[in-house]
Structure formats: structure tokens, C-alpha cells
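Write out a sequence, fold above all:
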Amino acid sequence: MPSNAHFPLLLAALCGAAFNVGAASVQPPTTAFTDVTATHVPADAALHALDGAMLDADGDGDLDIAVAVENGANRLYLNDGTGKLSHASGAFGSIKGDNEHVRVADFNRDGHPDVLFIAEDTEQHALFLGDGKGGFKRVSERLPATSQANGVAVGDVNDDGLPDIVIGNTTEGKSGVAQPFLWLNDPARPGHFIDATLTHLPRIDVQAQGIVLADLDGDGDLDMAIASQDPINRLLLNDGRGRFIDATDRLGKQVPTETREVHALDANGDGRLDLVFFNLTSNNREWDKDPQTRLFINQGDARFKDETVARLPTHRFSSWGGTVVDFNQDGYPDLVVSAIEVPGFKPLQVRAWQNDGKGIFTDVTAKVVPAATTGRSWSMASGDLDGDGKPDLFIGGWQSQARLLLSGD
């Protein structure tokens, strides 16, 4: 979280209206997304809704949103089927915490989505089992350990058909090693977890802020990329049984960054997964590292080359999050990127970068994202909330209204 505890809120009303110039009527520009926050999201401009994950919590066929709340109780927003969200108070209890991220999976194999929250300073990770009717039971005692965490990923790393959990830890304000955790889902008791850290992960010290599980070397199992706040990002390769080796050297030369998130995508359409890293200059302090978003292209066999300069728009804003989404429906993955000006922690408009299909991205923010979509934006979740077959975006925020963008026609 940002190092400064309090900031004055920037309140801005941005609106568009038709107006006449002589006899001609000039309409406001249209964008690929429509910002429906004012009518579709519970209003709370001071909420720290840092992350969201979509799931059908109540079994009505549409996607709802589980929201990780920093310094508060986590929330469930239920969807009315049109994308309009309402707060299901108390769905995840009333315990407040420094919640950073949320992930969804059917951990106990009962056919209903379950929810995992991870916490940083308060160190109380929380697991909730869903009943498919909007109810959740807290079973956090099934998690093997507590920690100061900021990164999390869920996936079947040992190919037993059950989702496992990777936790990325930090040691801010503490001594010791920031060793990630690997918790394997117990096949004898699905929804219970076995700590396999000592046997399945290399001994590494990495200040993890984000994790992605993806098949990066093309061998059919899930590998791991770790976004680190200091000093370099990491790559771990899976042997197919959930045992990982440190292959960070395959990332090639890295510019020192303070990275917050990492996502996998086939940027250039060659069938290999590439990596995009969202970065800060500092955690709301002075100008330090280059916050430029960086794109690493997979050369084959999980050997990467930083091709940022040739492929991404240049920028000086810091980004605490973003997502991969095909917002123009052309079959190529695009990027939506949060933007905050540092120093100053100034809210900025969310950015949209369009892929030409060959991995060259162009800033098309004006055509895609409404000017009203401005804030201290954080992590994002994408999915079809209004049932039109197109991806919509829920955008978290730090002491900033969480926002909802619906795809247009």
C-alpha cells in the first residue's frame, strides 16, 4: 500500500452533453467502454477496493464480484444480470484486514466457486467456501500459514485436477527472507492444503507483489513468473509435478524496477506466452526507478527478451495494476493500464493500449476509455457482466471510487 496514510480526495465531475454550434448539433465522442460507475457500483469514494475477482456467487447465471478491501471487511457485489452491482453486506463476515488480492476457484470440488483473500500487514489470509446460493463459510484454518503477503496465484501446478495456491511474501519492516509459499490442494481432502514450500520451491528471497501461473515453456504445465518490488523479477519453471526450479536467467537482462503485477499473454501471435510487467517509480515517495511498463517477448523455451522500447507506448506514470483484455474484439490481446502520477499520488485516467496483432501496442485511450474513468486505480478484473458476450472491466482503487466499464456496441 502507499506509504502515506492520508491524502485529500480529488473530486471531479466530468460529464458530456450535446451542444449546438450554429445549426449543427455536436455529440460527445463515444468510447469502446461506457463508464457506468455512477449507476451500477455502490458509491464509496474513500474505499480501498484494491482487487476484484468475478464469480457466479449466487447461482443465477451472471457474474458477481468479490472485492478485496484494504483496512476494511471484504465485500461481495451481486449482479442483477445487467451489470448493476449491489453490496451483499456481511457475505465475507465483518473482520477487517489489510486485504490486498482476491482469487476464485472451486477448491473443494463441490461445483461452487470459493474465494481466497490474502492480506499484507494484518497477515490473516482468508478462505471462504461458497454454497452456490450467495453464502460463504470461512475455513481459513485450512490454510497452512500466515504471512505478510501481496502476491497470489491459483492453478493446478501438479496436474491432479485440483487448484493449488502460490503466495508471494514480503518482509517490509521485518528481518528475514521473503520466501514464497506453495500450498498443494490435498486430493484426499479437497479444499484443505498441504505446505509444499520446502520440497517444491527453490530457496529464494523475493519481495513479491504479483504472481502469474502460465505455461511459459510450452511443455503443458504451469510455470511461475513473480513480480518483485526489489530488485528484479523472477521466473520459476515447473517439472510437471509441481516442483519448480529458478530460471530467472531466462528473463535476460532486466532494468531494475519496482514491479507490482505480471500478466501472461501471447502479444505477437506466435503461439508462445509473453510477459508484461506493471511498474512504479516508488511506492508514493520520490522519483526513483523507471515506472515504464515492460514487455518481455518469449523467444522459445521460456527464454525472454525485453522488447519494451519497440512495442509499448512510453510513459512516466506509475501503475499499480492492469489487465489483458481484447477490448476491440479483433482476436488480439490488448492492455488496460492503471495510471497514477508519482510523486504526488495524483489520480489519472486509465489507459488503453491496442495490439496490432504483431505485438505492437498503440495508446488509444481517447477512443476506448471515458475521461470520467479517473482515479487512483489499482488491480482489475474482466468478464461479461451484462450478458452481451463482451468483456467488461471492474477497476479497483486506493481511497478512490471503484469503477465499472461496460463494453459498448
